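User: Teach me something about this protein's shape.
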Amino acid sequence: MSALPNCPKCNSQYTYEDGTLLICPECSHEWTLEAEGENSEEVKVVRDANGNILNDGDSVTVIKDLKVKGSSSVIKIGTRVKNIRLIDEDHDIDCKIDGFGAMKLKSEFVKKI
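Assistant: First, the predicted structure itself:
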């Protein structure tokens, strides 16, 4: 007998199959095994310019002079950024840069140290 997964809604162990559906008798939740795989949390992998995987807390170096929007200053190539935080936006790195303050960067313009 194959082991069926617990109910994703109430975590009941008493699930059963009915054709292609899996059913929970305790909360009446119905789902398919394919849907269960799709519902699993998808983790976005953020990579630097060299293809290295970035994580929260990493230190990176800027690989290109970056203009600061709304200012005449520039973040120079080689600027070190410590303790980055990954976010799910177009600019996927949130950080603080010495002399500039809080900033969002694109991962394609940094490399991991």
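Now, about its shape. The longest helix spans residues 33-39. Helices lie at 33-39. If you'd like, I can walk through any region in more detail.
User: That's plenty for now, thanks!
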